[in-house]
Specification:
33 residues; mainly alpha; 94% helix; 0% strand; rod-shaped
C-alpha cells in the first residue's frame, strides 16, 4: 500500500514537471518566432 502511494505521488509529480516543461518550450518557440 505505501509503495503504491509513493508511485502515485511520483507519477503526479512527473505530470506537473512535464506540463511546466511544455509551457517553457512553448514560450521559447513563441519568442523565436
Amino acid at each position: 500500500m505505501i509503495y503504491h502511494r509513493i508511485t502515485l505521488s511520483s507519477f503526479q509529480g512527473e505530470g506537473l514537471l512535464s506540463r511546466l516543461a511544455k509551457l517553457i518550450i512553448a514560450l521559447i518557440l513563441l519568442r523565436l518566432l
